[in-house]
Write a structure and sequence with these properties.
The chain has 471 residues and is α+β, with helices and mostly antiparallel strands. The chain is 55% helix and 12% strand.
């Protein structure tokens, strides 16, 4: 794995050293502290806790000692308790941590991250304290870009061409320039955020983005999707991401997963609801009695995905059941209303039927007519294997639709795909409004043709709030 180097002002590092009494020669603990403060991998279900892989700990600390031993040594040296808990997604290969970072270090780090890289006084590398020259800065950034472009991927993956395109130098440089343009607005936005923890989180991610800019992608086992790596413009606060991509078109599939399973699982009630133009989010906001907001929409989305693919009705020893899971996210009253909604009940019933069918047949065909077997997953029991196959199958159809959009973009030299977010994309063009609108319509038309052929109930929508640089 790549070990990143945080650039900070010398005064900030000196203050951290005084607070923690951490000697310079204790390089291993400086590196682990650097990871926690600047580059942690957030838990996809809870961005206030971090996932830490055992091999990551060893790579960061450049040690063959066990991850547990290294983390205990870190706690002893710094006084920062990591609150280590199991992380079942990766079995015994990873843990989650919720570090008890002292408030004064939080405040110092937020202030430091709010100083643009080019304006840091006496810049040094955080872990080593080595002073940084302009030449070292250029070498570090260029090495990162080259590392991304040199990554090798299996050509058998359906998104092989997409990931090669996204790692092309032209796209990487586009992102770097946009980050530089909007940086002043981002710093202003972060400074006005009311919650300190979220301010710290966003400033930390922006610190990484401003250093490295480019979004790095990778394959993930048990899915046809590709995911972004490290901290990046996809994992940061939505409003900040939209600032960077504000000169792009934003297209995404409307209620993609519902529209796909309505066909695959033969759901008459969901089908009728979608055909009438119903919005699942508006429906659930009203039914559950919760206010409309992006934060609440994200909560509902997590609960809906748990219904579609994740949580069993009864649960097991390793994961909470659906009731406990949704109660913890929405609160007991709203969660009870959520589970009682007629569309949710139909989804649960037909999801269980689909899971049983997968168990009976040993797998199923995906959107690319490839058979996904239970044994091809990394899961250990048949129930988890069936869930993995089920979600992979639905996601493969999402990939198939978005791949159609990519093919249109790739064939048009006047278009640039700037970011890929599963069922959504950002597209840039330098052309005037009329031609740009025509290009976008061509993308939507091509995707709609495939949607109609497959019998799904969705569409590739354009976000009307995104301006275009050229009028």
């Amino acid at each position: 794995m790549r070990v990143f180097k945080a650039r900070v002002s010398a005064s900030y590092r000196n203050q951290i050293q005084l607070q923690l009494n951490l000697p310079d020669e204790d390089y291993s603990n400086w590196k682990l502290l650097e990871y926690i403060l600047f580059y942690p991998e957030e838990d996809r279900d809870d961005n206030h806790q971090f996932v830490i892989h055992h091999k990551t700990v060893q790579a960061i600390c450049n040690s063959t000692k066990s991850a547990g031993e290294l983390m205990r040594a870190f706690e002893d040296a710094t006084g920062i308790i990591l609150n280590i808990t199991p992380y079942t997604t990766y079995g015994s290969k990873a843990r989650t941590i919720q570090p008890t970072i002292p408030n004064n270090i939080k405040s110092l780090t937020t202030e430091e991250n709010n100083i643009p890289n080019g304006k840091k006084i006496d810049p040094v590398f955080f872990s080593s304290g080595e002073h940084i020259t302009a030449y070292m800065e250029r070498v570090e950034n260029e090495t990162y870009l080259q590392d991304i472009m040199k990554k090798e991927f299996s050509p058998e993956h359906p998104l092989y061409d997409v990931i090669q395109y996204l790692h092309d130098h032209k796209r990487l440089i586009w992102t770097k320039k946009r980050v530089q343009v909007v940086a002043p607005q981002v710093y202003e936005y972060i400074a006005e955020m009311p919650e300190e923890d979220e301010r710290l989180r966003c400033s930390r991610i922006w610190h990484f983005i401003e250093q490295y800019s480019s979004i790095e992608y990778d394959y993930v086992s048990n899915t046809r999707r590709i995911y972004s790596c490290n901290s990046n413009l996809i994992t940061i606060n939505r409003q900040i991401r939209e600032l960077v991509f504000s000169n792009c078109f934003h297209l995404d599939l409307k209620a993609a997963h519902l529209g796909i399973v309505a066909k695959l699982w033969n759901l008459p009630l969901v089908t009728e609801f979608l055909l009438k133009g119903g919005s699942i989010w508006t429906e659930l906001f009203s039914h559950c009695g919760i206010s409309k907001s992006e934060d609440n929409k994200d909560k509902l989305k997590r609960c809906l995905y748990a219904v579609l693919y994740g949580k069993a009705r009864t649960g097991n020893g390793k994961e909470p059941n659906l009731t406990k899971f949704t109660d913890g996210i929405l609160g007991k009253l709203a969660a009870s209303k959520f589970r009682s909604h007629y569309l949710i009940r139909e989804l649960l019933t037909h999801r269980d039927i689909a899971l049983q069918r997968i168990k009976d047949t040993g797998g199923t065909l995906d959107g690319f007519n490839s058979f996904i077997s239970l044994n091809s997953t990394s899961k250990s029991n048949i129930s988890s294997q069936a869930k993995s196959v089920l979600s992979s199958t639905v996601q493969s159809y999402e990939v198939k639709l978005m791949l159609t959009a990519f093919n249109v973009i790739q064939a048009n030299p006047d278009l640039l795909l700037t970011a890929w977010i599963h069922d959504g994309i950002y597209v840039a063009t330098t052309h005037h409004k009329e031609r740009a609108e025509r290009y976008i319509a061509e993308i939507q038309s091509a995707v709609q043709t495939v949607i109609d052929e497959l019998g799904f109930i969705t569409e590739l929508e354009r976000n009307p709030n995104f301006p275009i640089t050229k009028k």
